[in-house]
Amino acid sequence: MELFFRDLLKERKSAIVEKWFDAIIATYPMDTSGFLKNQRDQFANPIGHTFSNGIESILSTLIEGDTFAEGLPFLEDIIRVRAIQDFTPAKALNFIFMLKTIVREELEKEIRLGQISSALLGFESKIDDLALLAFDIYVKCREQIYELKTDELKRMTFTLLKKANLMSEIPVQEFEHNDQK
Question: What is the mean pLDDT of each run of 10 residues along the chain (181 residues)?
């Protein structure tokens, strides 16, 4: 990444993070978004805290050109939250693509002057790679949720059948997924 572009991103990092956080929070209903944005206590608002720290770490990783492994724990935390909530996959992961728009808006003057075109394309390509990685994480989280729901349903069914004396002695473990971590 060009040094000039990287310096611009570092200089405007706090503004980009703030706008990105606001854009993510805007995807929630009004009452929830107000709470997530205004409640600063990490124990009273763990989701807002996770998002705030996570996007700052992700942006730092993108700016420095580091591998995604360094920003991955924060990305995983955000994706886990979004996977549990009632979002479609597109809406759950859209926050990553929002970063492109926010960076373009923040660096609009430099883009119009043609000073950062190639560096911006490279940066946006890294965001696309991040989105693919996020999708993999999202799918794994959803699979885990579905496995847990399936196992719970099997346990409930087994218990009901056993109470009704319609089930012989088969251990409940035979009904559960064996590949859980």
Answer: 88 97 94 87 91 94 80 89 93 97 95 88 95 95 94 88 72 63 51
84 domain residue, yes or no: yes
The most distant pair of C-alpha atoms in the chain lies apart, rounded to whole Å, by 78
Count of alpha carbons within 13 angstroms of residue 21, beta-carbon side: 22
Q: Are 149 and 166 in contact (CB under 8 A)?
A: no
Asked if residue 173 is part of any domain, the answer here is no
Q: What is the DSSP string of 107-163?
A: THHHHHTTSSHHHHHHHHHHHHHHHHHHHHHHHHHHHHHHHHHHHHHHHHHHHHHHH
Would you say 175 and 154 are in contact if contact means Cβ atoms under 8 Å apart? yes
Q: Is 170 left (phi over 0), alpha (psi -120 to 50) or beta?
A: beta
Phi, psi of 73 (to 5 degrees): -55, -40
Count other Cβ atoms within 10 Å, centred on residue 61.
Answer: 20
Please give the residue range of the domain that contains residue 7.
3-139
Per the structure, how many domains does the chain have? 1
What span, in angstroms and rounded, lies between the C-alpha atoms of 26 and 48? 12
Q: Provide the 8-state DSSP code for 113.
A: T
Q: Is residue 97 part of a domain?
A: yes
